[in-house]
Amino acid sequence: MYGTHSKRDMDIEYQSQVPILRPSIHARRAKITVKFQDLYGFTVEGNVDDVNVLNEVREKVREKGKVWWALEASKGANWYLQTHVSSTLKTSLKFSALVNAITLKKLIRKGIPPVLRPKIWFSLSGAAKKKSTAPDSYYEDLTKAVQDKVTPATKQIDHDLPRTFPGHPWLDTAEGHAALRRVLVAYSFRDSDVGYCQGLNYVAALLLLVMKTEEEAFWMIAVLLENVLVSDCYNKNLSGCHVEQRVFKDLLTKKCPRIVAHLDALEFDVSLVCTEWFLCLFAKSLPSETTLRVWDVLFNEGANLLFHVAMAIFKMNEEELLTVHHVGDVIHIIQRCTHQLFDPDDLLTVAFDQIGFMTTTTISRQRKKQEPAVMAELDQRLRRLNSIKADDEQ
Amino acid sequence: MATSRNKNMNAKLVLLGDVGAGKSSLVLRFVKGQFIEFQESTIGAAFFSQTVALNDATVKFEIWDTAGQERYHSLAPMYYRGAAAAIIVYDITNQESFERAKKWVQELQAQGNSNMVMALTGNKADLLDARKVAAEEAQTYAQENGLFFMETSAKTAANVNDVFSEIAKRLPRLQPAQNPSGMVLMDGPAQTPATASCCS
Ligand SMILES: Nc1nc2c(ncn2[C@@H]2O[C@H](COP(=O)(O)OP(=O)(O)O)[C@@H](O)[C@H]2O)c(=O)[nH]1
Ligand SMILES: [Mg+2]
């Protein structure tokens, strides 16, 4: 039966398949690139240092788990689900909810233990609430109703299934493809303005690996697109994505003026590398655990976090970026950095501590400012293309 | 833009064309000499670089392999802005992809720079039995629009390197005088790329 398959069993399967990583002395000497599987079954290439970092990260994840278990013991099970400060609460309860919310924010920035992720994400993101407003059988009914339909969206989804994390031990199997297909197809019918947008395949695939069930992955996609991210990111002309790119450029100019001035001189548009980050929520760029750490915070604190992370990637490479003079070198530096960010704390420390404060209102104002400009630009392009067509017919 | 220092120049090149025409396969063939059936799908565009050696100079191509469904085309200007060259790819077994290629040519003409070297490439030339677009038709179109035209196969490697070396020759700084624009090259001499690097 679909929708109930436990991904947890699967995770455990991986863990047992993953060999204990003990790089040979030869590899260590020669700095050879080795291939290995990470916590979520992705094959990564790196050198021996990367393997060691990954092993340390595993250890840190285990250590962090202990903090959470200790808190659970003192505050009660599920305390982290009681952080909503509602006006109906008694004052004393309000206070404890507030304390919990503050504690939780700090904890989440340090990482949610993988076993708690499904529960915490589902609740904090608002997915649980969204699901509760729909009939119990919503996902099952929707999936059944649309399974044999063929639309441009389903065709594109079918095209992309074997191209989504090819080689992954579960995602790239018939079972994995089928689950990913059901989630994406179901969503394409839920929101026909979005239908299916490439990029969502990577997001949904990673959600499938994390969440307990396919159904929960579906609701996570729904809450992401409908509530967490800015609207219209994935619509038919990606207008929301264009807006985010412009807002990001403005923020980066304020926070890292030297980098921006240098890249401008090279005629390098930062969107050349950022578009993928924003559309795949880093799933295609960062190692899996690092991506999931970004998502931990995304679901608790909201979409502005994406700006912090993107900026951190530039900031971390500031000195090196300033020394290069070719577009290819810029891309190489950025991609090498993102692919090797095996320790999530390296990235998140910069994102939280070195970028400085950006208020939600400032960012919202920026978005409002950019929207008309983006619409005008998209409209202009359409009109130009249509006028070409009109010329054709004459 | 093409920028040159001595005899070595850098040139930004963009590949445009219908989904499935074979853009990524052409790039992979040119940059790595490989052909792979299922590559990870690209969001926006993937970047590659590859150097072509001409007689007395080298051209380092900075290649943007664009990808994605129709809605991603709204991002295309970011990739072709300032490009020195463009390869517009269609699939010879798919008439629709040829029509789409013409649209890209028009879009580039409408707002690209007028010095941009443009190549029209009919890919999958190995699938002769399934041909839907006549070479003559594409050739005529190319001539009328000031592009050069070749049929290629990313699968067999036929003409792939040639498209890039021909572009290299035609770039403003290096263009030899005897190369009239619109000249049709069906099988030029193969040029072996000198160095390869890729980061996508
Ligand atoms: N027979 C044949 N197939 C090709 C050739 N080039 C690409 N293909 C196939 O066509 C499909 C689409 O190719 P791809 O490079 O992904 O196209 P893109 O969407 O334009 O990047 C893939 O299945 C390729 O294997 C070719 O020259 N000959
Ligand atoms: Mg492609």
TrEMBL record, chain A:
PROSITE patterns cross-referenced by the UniProt entry: TBC_RABGAP
The organism's place on the tree of life at top rank: Eukaryota
SUPFAM superfamilies linked: Ypt/Rab-GAP domain of gyp1p
InterPro entries, sorted: Rab-GAP-TBC_dom, Rab-GAP_TBC_sf, Rab_GAP_TBC_domain
Pfam families for the chain: RabGAP-TBC
Domain Rab-GAP TBC positions: 111-302
Molecular functions (GO terms): GTPase activator activity
Name of this protein: Rab-GAP TBC domain-containing protein
Species: Capsicum annuum
From TrEMBL, chain B:
Region: Disordered, residue numbers: 178-200
GO BP term (any one): vacuolar transport
Subcellular location: Cell membrane
Protein name listed in UniProt: Ras-related protein Rab-5A
Name of one Pfam family that matches: Ras
Organism: Capsicum annuum (Capsicum pepper)
Record bears the keyword Lipoprotein: yes
Family (UniProt): Belongs to the small GTPase superfamily. Rab family.
Keyword Membrane appears in the UniProt entry: yes
GO terms for cellular component: endocytic vesicle; endomembrane system; endosome; plasma membrane
Record CDD domains: Rab5_related (cd01860)
Reported function: Protein transport. Probably involved in vesicular traffic.
NCBIfam families: small_GTP
Listed PANTHER family: PTHR47978
Gene3D superfamilies for the chain: P-loop containing nucleotide triphosphate hydrolases (3.40.50.300)
Key words, A-Z: GTP-binding, Lipoprotein, Membrane, Nucleotide-binding, Prenylation, Protein transport, Transport
Membrane topology reported for the UniProt record: Lipid-anchor
Record-level Gene Ontology MF annotations: GTP binding; GTPase activity
Predominant localisation class: membrane
Domain of life where this protein originates: Eukaryota
Family matches, as PROSITE patterns: RAB, RAS, RHO
